[in-house]
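Posting this for the archive.
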Amino acid sequence: MKKNETGIIDQKSFGRKICTARKKLGLTQFELAEKINVSQNFLGDIERGIKLPSLPKLILLSNTLKLSLDSMFCDSLNNTLEDLGDIYYTDKQLNVLKKVVNMINDNFND
């Protein structure tokens, strides 16, 4: 997988998903590129896994291809947690976790 600024995304898998959805709707690269206001070359680079679209273009792609964002990335994201130290909790979440730990401790102290 190729590392990029958004994390680890299998860009080739993402591109295949876009290409498949485009063809399923009977659109040419040129037609889809016009609908999302990018060049045909840029769309081709996305479909070949060379480039990723910006967030606004990603949303346009999602709407035009009738694909949810999660389905667009489901095969292309590395969903494994490598370092639990990278997980951050809100104050509310920390309070809930503390209550759960306290409840567990109270049950074992009886």
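Residues 2-81 form a domain with the 434 Repressor (Amino-terminal Domain) fold (CATH 1.10.260.40). The CA atoms of residues 77 and 89 lie 22 Å apart.
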